[in-house]
Specification:
Length: 783
């Protein structure tokens, strides 16, 4: 051996070693996906999102199964086709069927493997004008007496001011004090019903929350309710405002929040509020359940449950799309300033006194401020939220992409885009697939975007032998579920390129439709649902058809986008059997008149049209001109549109229209119009009445005498009026009256009035006041 080595120069040995290193074939160990302990596809995909598993049966025949796990590009180079690879790539599906006006898209499906992530874009559009619901939640403890008085004029004035920003403002009202238990209130029997008995003033009992007025657009009703409110009383300084806020937010039906409106909850108080765990002082240890507990508009669980935590209150405000506004006095401003930082979509206003003008400026300013800031809150639903993560990056209209979750200064008509990235850390210990829901909710908006994440922790096949065939035959032979929708065309409907209409998965040749929070998806190819078609009269497709891929398929007797129109035109037939009386067409079961002057259910009314007599007058004039001769009457065919008949006796009956033509020589020509079996006939009476010459002369004399008498009466009346207005002994200045000394003595120089004021509070104020008001000096000439 030594003699053999001596034959080679040392440089030759180095050259051989370099050649050996450079010609070495890459091994699977060079890949981050390869491991000697890998035995299954599931273990391979857990190595990372870049790893893939090849389930081709004859792939690297004779090699161990761990060679099947590698980077996708390496597997392609080794002869594994793309159709034989199990990848851990993320899949994103956007449901574009559901329409929205503010937030889009609203329904997104994402499939993730361990270590993978996916990004979606959610657009939030700021509309021009919103309907607004404003709920006043007022502290009615004794210190708020003056503030209640200021509220009496807020309703109408605020409505007029908000017209600049919203054409539809509704107001509601509720009150609160504190939990009606010791030590928060005096539980002495004489104090329970009247906490102000020591001051000889009648107060209402203390209460946790009282819903007084549901949302209404009647400002007079709002003002009337405010005027009826009375104060109450309690013992400690903090109040139960946060407890009442939660009830006002979750009791949707009772309060009357409108789903399409911007919702503002205005809390008015002059004291801080109790927080969670404060109720232990009263022996109340049961946590707040966040549900509505109103009976007869009274919060019945106030003495049974603790105050809500700030996190719980924040979730309920977001869940019910409510902006909150705190109107507090200056002394408590700093306390609430720390609190509102934990409540998204909240505005804090500082007021010296709750005067009407200050409150109006506060509400309008808060409305403009809250709407100009667009923020999103992201929540993960499910116990497996620790295995997933979410990040938010906004793109503001001004082009900024700050690392935050909101944009400020957004103007009406602008759109804010949020890049939502979701990722998966790991699979559960049992290795089973799971699903969670991520809700992207813009603060204060009544629309949201829902991202449904399906984790993919397993593979379609755990061994190459089970994946050599495809379709239903393999499923029937092995009992293995086949989830690759690209392998079975039987899940495609005719003329569609989508598998299961894009709303399901193909399993063993049959579609398994996705579950939607909005409703039910069903059908052979998941083509039907009960939520994505237009509604009519509160029912989808008007209850007269089926929803197929977002379009209504109506029953035979109905038509229209929402099956709102009857297919038959029988509802447009008038009493004479004509369609819309012959003056219109039938559109969606209703007559649309061809002449804008016509109206009525069947276009039968036309006040501006000529009457039946006027429309036939030219025909009668023509026949009179030809002497009512049947022989010569044919020259009037161009003027007459109806059948002409001469008669000696007039026609009578219910359907006969009596008319009269009077010529220039005062001759009277009566004629009648009849309608029988849809045919109109004109009957001209040949018996003519013409006045004699003597009658004509008498008529002219009577007219002249009547005019002459009228002129005489007018002249005499004018002379009498002038004589009556002239004073005796000469003329005087018109309109001036000279008062005598006696007259002036009866004119008082001062006015004295006693006014009595009554107050419902004990301070020492005078109850009567005399006022003396000096009158203006009385001039001699009095006009």
């Amino acid at each position: 051996m030594k003699s053999w080595l001596r034959r080679f120069h040392p440089l030759s040995l180095c050259f051989l070693m370099v050649v050996a290193l450079c010609s070495r074939v890459p091994r699977p160990g060079d890949s981050v996906c390869w491991s000697s302990s890998l035995t299954s596809c599931t273990e391979c995909l857990k190595r990372g999102p870049q790893c893939a598993w090849c389930f081709k049966e004859d792939f690297l025949e004779g090699a161990a199964s761990n060679y099947r796990c590698d980077l996708a590009e390496n597997l392609l180079l080794k002869g594994c086709g793309q159709e034989f690879m199990e990848l851990s790539e993320a899949k994103v599906e956007v449901d574009a069927i559901i329409s929205s006006t503010q937030v889009s898209p609203q329904n997104i499906s994402v499939q993730l493997h361990p270590g993978s992530q996916a990004s979606v874009i959610v657009a939030v559009n700021q509309l021009e004008r919103y309907p607004v619901d404003l709920y006043y939640l007022v502290d009615v403890s004794a210190s708020m007496q003056e503030n209640l008085d200021y509220l009496k004029t807020v309703g109408v004035a605020l409505s007029l001011r908000m017209m600049q920003h919203s054409s539809d403002l509704w107001l509601g009202f509720g009150s609160f004090v504190d939990k009606p238990v010791s030590p928060y209130i005096n539980v002495h029997p004489s104090k329970l019903n009247n906490p102000c008995s020591d001051y000889e003033v009648r107060c209402r009992p203390a209460h946790g929350f009282h819903h007084v007025l549901s949302m209404t657009g009647n400002m007079s009703e709002f003002t009337r309710v405010i005027k009826r409110q009375r104060i109450s009383g309690n013992m400690d300084t903090p109040e139960g405002g946060l407890d009442a806020m939660l009830q006002a937010a979750v009791c949707q039906t009772a309060v009357g929040w409108r789903p399409e409106a911007k919702r503002l909850l205005l809390l008015m108080t002059d004291q801080p509020s109790h927080l969670a765990l404060d109720s232990r002082l009263a022996g109340i240890v049961r946590p707040n359940d966040g549900l509505c507990h109103l009976e007869n508009n009274i919060y019945t669980a106030s003495t049974e449950m603790d105050h809500p935590s700030l996190g719980q209150l924040s979730d309920k405000l977001l869940e019910n799309h409510i902006y909150s506004i705190f109107a507090v006095e200056k002394q408590q401003y700093q306390w609430y300033e720390e609190l509102v930082r934990l409540l998204p979509g909240t505005y804090l206003g500082k007021l010296g006194l709750f005067q009407a003008s200050s409150l109006i400026e506060l509400v309008v300013g808060a409305y403009k401020k809250l709407l100009s800031e667009v923020a999103v809150a992201v929540s993960l639903d499910g116990r497996a939220s620790s295995r997933f993560w979410v990040s938010v990056s906004p793109l503001c209209p001004n082009g900024s992409t700050a690392n935050q979750q909101s944009c400020s200064g957004v103007q009406p008509g602008q759109t804010v885009y949020f890049n939502i990235t979701v990722g998966m850390h790991s699979c559960p210990d049992n290795g089973e697939d799971e699903s969670i829901t991520v809700t992207v909710r813009p603060v204060g908006y009544n629309e949201s975007s829902v991202i449904r994440i399906r984790s993919k922790c397993g593979c379609r096949c755990e061994s190459a032998r089970h994946c050599q065939n495809s379709g239903t035959t393999l499923c029937e032979e092995t009992g293995q579920e086949q989830r690759d929708s690209s392998l079975d065309p039987s899940c495609q409907s005719a003329g569609s390129d989508l598998i299961c209409s894009g709303r399901g998965v193909c399993e063993c040749g049959s579609c398994v439709c996705d579950q939607s929070r909005l409703g039910t998806v069903y059908g052979k190819h998941c083509e039907n649902d009960d939520f994505s078609c237009p509604y009519f009269m509160g029912l989808m497709c008007g209850g007269r058809g089926d929803c197929v891929l977002g379009e209504c398929v109506c029953k035979d007797e109905w038509t229209g986008d929402s099956c709102e129109c009857p297919a038959s035109s029988s509802s447009c037939q008038s009493a004479d059997g004509l369609l819309c009386s012959g003056h219109g067409e039938c559109v969606c079961g209703r007559c649309v008149c061809s002449d804008s002057r016509r109206s009525g259910s069947f276009c039968e009314r036309c006040p501006a049209c000529q009457s039946t007599c006027q429309s036939n007058m030219n025909c009668v004039v023509c026949h009179v001109a030809y002497g009512l001769s049947r022989k010569e009457g044919g020259h009037c065919n161009k003027t007459c549109t109806t059948s002409i008949h001469y008669t000696d006796n007039g026609q009578t009956g219910d359907k006969v229209v009596q008319c009269m033509y009077i010529s220039n020589n005062n001759c009277r020509y009566p004629f009648q119009i009849t309608a029988e079996a849809g045919q109109t006939k004109l009957h001209i009476n040949t018996r003519t009445e013409c006045p004699s010459s003597g009658q004509m002369g008498t008529f002219l004399c009577v007219c002249a005498l009547t005019v002459l008498c009228g002129l005489v009466v007018v002249a005499v009346s004018r002379l009498l009026l002038q004589k009556k207005n002239r004073p005796p002994g000469g003329t005087a200045v018109d309109g001036v009256y000279n008062c005598t000394d006696k007259d002036l003595s009866y004119i008082p120089t001062t006015n004295e009035k006693t006014v009595t004021y009554r107050r419902d509070r004990p301070p020492d104020h005078p109850v009567e006041m005399n006022t003396h008001i000096s009158k203006m000096p009385f001039p001699d000439p009095w006009h």
